[in-house]
Amino acid sequence: QVENVKLLDRYTNRKAANGTLYLTATHLIYVDASAEVRKETWILHHHIATVEKLPLTTAGYPLLIHCKNFHMAHFVIGQERDCHEVYTSLLKLSQPVKPEELYAFSYNPKMSKENREIGWKLIDLKVDYQRMGIPNDYWEITDVNKDYEVCNTYPPEIVVPKAANKAVVIGSSRFRSRGRIPVLSYLYKENNAAICRCSQPLSGFSARCLEDEQMLQAIREANPGSPFMYVVDTRPKLNAMANRAAGKGYENEDNYDNIRFKFIGIENIHVMRNSLQKLLEVCETKSPSMSDFLTGLENSGWLRHIKAVMDAGVFLAKAVKDEKASVLVHCSDGWDRTAQVCSLASLLLDPFYRTFKGFMILIEKEWIAMGHKFSHRCGHLDGDPKEVSPVFTQFVECVWQLMQQFPCTFEFNERFLLEIHDHVYSCQFGNFLGTCHKEREDLKIFEKTHSLWPFLLQKKQELRNPLYRGFTAYKELQPNTLPFSFQFWCGMYNRFDKGMHPKQCVLDHLLSCVSQKMKLEDNASELE
Amino acid sequence: QVEQVKLLDRFSTSNKSLTGTLYLTATHLLFIDSSQRETWILHHHIAAVEKLPLTTSGCPLVIQCKNFRIVHFVVPRERDCHDIYNSLLQLSRTAKYEELYAFSYNPKQNKCEQVKGWQLIDLAEEYKRMGVPNANWQLSDANRDYKICETYPRELYVPRTASKPIIVGSSKFRSKGRFPVLSYYHKNKEAAICRCSQPLSGFSARCLEDEHMLQAISKANPSNRYMYVMDTRPKLNAMANRAAGKGYENEDNYSNIRFQFVGIENIHVMRSSLQKLLEVSGTKGLSVNDFLSGLENSAWLRHIKAVLDAAVFLVKAIAVESASVLVHCSDGWDRTSQVCSLGALLLDSYYRTIKGFMVLIEKDWISFGHKFSDRCCQLDGDPKEISPVFTQFLESVWNLTEQFPQAFEYNEAFLLQIHEHVHSCQFGNFLGNCQKEREELKLKEKTYSLWPFLLDEQKKYQNPLYNPDLSPELLEPNTVSFNFKFWRNMYHQFDRSMHPRQSVFNLILNMSEQNKQLEEDIKELEAKIKRRNGQSDAVLVKEHQQSAHPAPMALKTPPCFKKEQPLIPVNDAVRTIEGSNTADNRYSEFVAEFSKAEPAVVSLEYGVARMTC
């Protein structure tokens, strides 16, 4: 506990607040003493990305904290010893080494064991496959990966074409990076076109694999409506070619029957990490001039990357809906760009994924189950900083950009996205811990921690979109991807800079409008 | 009339086109496509017509409009194309005022309505609303015959202590005779916004009367000793003007003034900035990087920010320091109009109503002589006089509506419609360059006023989120760069494919209307109940008060839904009454309709996650 600490506001030059800093086991808490109303700022240790000591100023020792949810706090502490102590303890607390130290394992929301189990069962992927009509004549749920023998980063239950027998599956898995074979991600029921995902083939310059070729053929034949299928490599062509030298690479159109091969050119995790870094630097500039802001935004390339992801999603959706062709998507390992593109395409094609429940299922299916390495990408544990990358953040931003274009099609609002984004980093719930399903089982996540989704559903009232027109109002979305349609997301990257936002919140107004309406209706029915 | 003409879409990559027939009328260019959809283009809106090199499908003709519509026709025969080209060139460039659309436009109004329409906006009334004339300010008749300043209106408000010789002397020392006059008076602070043109000070000239004039303005504000003089030009430009015998006020010669440059660029810079912006936004197959760097290069948003920053400075001087401000630029009709009108808009919520905005435009733009005719190129004239000064004003207002979505009674469509008509020359309001010219043209007799027409379709222009009770009188916008956005609906108003696919406007409107309807229905029901059951009056009235206006309460502190929820009283006394008359049936239908649209109420327990940690 340190008293007499000042919290500086990032943009306004108002007088700094004076207050007390508390360090608890899980949070850093700042209590503003000067305000009449008790104002508290809570910062979860897991959210802290970096802590920085700045050179001494006249007011004291400045301490700058950057959070993973783009919160930035600038404290000024009176005494050097205090400052140093806070600094070192934060450093220690913000970088846990063992998974068991994560908040989720100690978090106890006073919930009975049964309720917790029910919470974990809330999202059942089998139900979603059933919704798509699987199993059917062409697709089946196989338990070939029951003991993680085929692929240890895939879940135990995967969906493959019925025509692909065990030998084909295993053969194909040997020819794919990390054994991530082509599996179904989404089936568009209306024309049987499917979106499948996998990792890059180990083709090098000339290698081929009959089972893998049979696998792709099986996928194509599972969609009798189309004579060909797309194979989409979401990497830039140059990167994919470079991978050939390492014995990996991409499919050769001559070896596979009737495939149409296409590069889409989304950059890799390192480029994305740097891009976000640049974007945040722009956000942090104190009152940038108009030109600085625009040049900075352009230089960061962030919106260009968002557009690339969106374009890829749109391409997939068009191929499935308009050309009735199945699509196989991969990148390098098939857990970053592939997850972005597949989930975005499903979101565009299926209104179910635009509801609360559907969006949860989408994240559980394409991201969590299929092994997006949340733990590494979000830096949950002290690890390789080169593995950190805002891949999931980009997906969330793409959804937000869609919301701007289609304000009435999503059941949830911006806050829901922010809430999910927060909890991906907070490690408060078990869902996003670890890197794959196997690891989560090993960590006993399902026994020891809680699931995020029931907590979000409880808050439904403030997370809903008051303008939602219902499930059936809109089917497939065809977003516009001209550059004009992409905006800087102030609500995400400058969320905690209160002065930056519109002074009046439309969302609050509309929400209260809706609740007022319900109340009036209640009132009226009582009167009757 | 030309048949088999194709209309190309500007952005779609698929080269899809509509085929139809092109008609030329006296006032419009009309395109009707095969599915009978009509595209009307007013000749006055046409900024440029261009013939492109012949292609295989025909002769392309590109028409750029002043309201940022761009249409791309392909005419099969070259002769037709040439004919259209020539006639459009002729029709779009009018040499005389009398040929403008406004003089032939006949909206079936009788004489009386026409006169009434012109009387709708009464500036004398407006000054009365502000609280002038009063002890310090009076109406001056010095310019009654336009003898002192041709470009000012007849009726001007000046400090009471400024005698006629001072006015005349001051006007001789000001460019174009535009001496300092009142633009807006802030009743509570007793501070004033005044406007004028640059002084003819050169390097050392001074004028006692002008100094007296400023002193009079300063003294007319009893709450503050000093006043601000804002020169809205960049310092360099103002200094350069000194060589031509113009310039800016010397702080040493005037007592108690604080002089300030705010650096808004001139009309030529703005014109080329817009030009660049349009080039960027018109590019086909633009990448995100090209767009952003193009946006930056055009500097358009930087200029918008400069204008708003100036207005914010002005407002702070008045609201915080209670000081009067005198604003000028070069001639005091471009940047000065922008800054004064935006300042007033921020200070006074009246200007954020539909009627008030009309008054503001009439006052600070039309009557004070913003040269609409020259700036919007209504007549064939000097292209160097054209500049999007008024467009910038509208864009600044739009930016404010984005920051304060509940503070404005009007919506984006209203701003766009005004912009449309500034260029359309369909109504008399914006014709000519100043009041004198308008009187000579006999506009009030020969043309119609725009405002009554806008008021008639008021519903279209209302902002469903408008809530004056929740909006502060004084707006304090944030002018950090992040807050300025490209105004897609202005510059791509006619590119349908670019707009959000879903219009929220109607939904919100419905929502608030349903709420109102519900409230009324409840009132009605309660009244009925009251009549039948006179005893439980007291309870009912109380309940009624709670239910009628819960919205403001909920809004100030959104989390208080929680507190409010228990307020819904379960009033058994009321429930016992079962009236099954016709009105009630209608009502239950109503309810049924809603319950379909809205999911059931979910308990409002707050996030356990955050509260327990």
Automatic annotation (TrEMBL), chain A:
GO terms for biological process: phosphatidylinositol dephosphorylation. The keyword Hydrolase applies. The active site is at C331. This is Myotubularin-related protein 8. Residues 119-493 form the Myotubularin phosphatase domain. GO terms for molecular function: phosphatidylinositol-3,5-bisphosphate phosphatase activity; phosphatidylinositol-3-phosphate phosphatase activity. The keyword Hydrolase applies. One of its GO terms (cellular component) is nuclear envelope. PROSITE patterns: PPASE_MYOTUBULARIN, TYR_PHOSPHATASE_1. The lineage of its organism: Eukaryota, Metazoa, Chordata, Craniata, Vertebrata. Substrate binds at N268, I269, C331, S332, D333, G334, W335, D336, R337. Transmembrane segments: none annotated. InterPro entries: MTMR8_PTP, Myotubularin, Myotubularin-like_Pase_dom, PH-GRAM_MTMR6-9, PH-like_dom_sf, Prot-tyrosine_phosphatase-like, Tyr_Pase_AS, Tyr_Pase_cat. Belongs to the protein-tyrosine phosphatase family. Non-receptor class myotubularin subfamily. CDD domains: PTP-MTMR8. Keywords: Hydrolase, Lipid metabolism. It comes from Nipponia nippon.
From TrEMBL, chain B:
One of its GO terms (molecular function) is phosphatidylinositol-3-phosphate phosphatase activity. The active site is at C329 (phosphocysteine intermediate). GO terms for cellular component: cytoplasm; nuclear envelope. Residues 508-535 form a coiled coil. SMART domains: PTPc_motif. Residues 117-491 form the Myotubularin phosphatase domain. The keyword Hydrolase applies. Substrate binds at N266, I267, C329, S330, D331, G332, W333, D334, R335. GO terms for biological process: phosphatidylinositol dephosphorylation. Keywords: Coiled coil, Hydrolase, Lipid metabolism. The keyword Ubl conjugation does not apply. Pfam families: Myotub-related (PF06602), PH-GRAM_MTMR6-like (PF21098). Belongs to the protein-tyrosine phosphatase family. Non-receptor class myotubularin subfamily. This is Myotubularin-related protein 6. It comes from Nipponia nippon (Crested ibis).
